[in-house]
Amino acid sequence: MMLIFILVTVILSLVFPVGLGDPADPTDNLFVPKPEWYFMSLYELLKFFPGKLEVIATAVIPAGGILVLFLVPFLDKSPEKKPSKRPLAMILMFLAVAAISALTLIGILS
C-alpha cells in the first residue's frame, strides 16, 4: 500500500506540477511576511511579549502547554472513558484548543 501511495503521489506531482511562485524581490517594501497557519498562533503570541520577553512566548508557554497536556493522564486518574465523566481532561483540552484557535484566528485577521 505504501508503494502504491508513493507511486500515485509521484505520478500526480509529475502530471500536475506546482510552481513556487514569483521570485523574491528585495526592492518590494509592501510585502508583509507572515507564517503559515500552523505557526500563526505562536507568531501572534510574540506580539504580547516584546523584546527580551520573547523567550516566554517562544519557549516557556509552548513547553509549559505541552507539559500540562502530557501530565493530564497522570493528573486525571479516573477509570472512566466517557468524556463527560472526565471534566479535568476535557477542560484542559478545551482551553488548549480554544487558545490556539483564537490566537490563530487573530493572527490571520490581523
SS elements, strand count: 0
Residue runs with pLDDT of under 50 for 5 or more positions: none
Characterize the main sheet.
none
User: Helix/strand-derived class?
Assistant: mainly alpha
Approximately what portion of the residues adopt beta-strand conformation?
A: under 5%
Gyration radius, to the nearest Å? 21 Å
- The percent range for helix content is 55-70%
Number of helices: 4
- Measured between the Cα atoms of the first and last residue, the distance is 43 Å
User: Could you give the order of the helices and strands?
Assistant: HHHH
Shape: flat
Mean pLDDT: 88
What would you note in describing this structure?
With 110 residues, the protein is mainly α. 60% of the residues lie in helices and 0% in strands. It is built from four helices and no strands. The termini are far apart.
Give the tags.
110 residues; mainly alpha; 4 helices; 0% strand
Task: Walk me through the topology.
Elements: H1 2-15, H2 40-46, H3 54-75, H4 87-109
Helix pairs in contact: 2-4, 3-4
Structure described in brief:
With 110 residues, the chain is an all-alpha fold. Helices cover 60% and strands 0% of the residues. The mean pLDDT is 88.
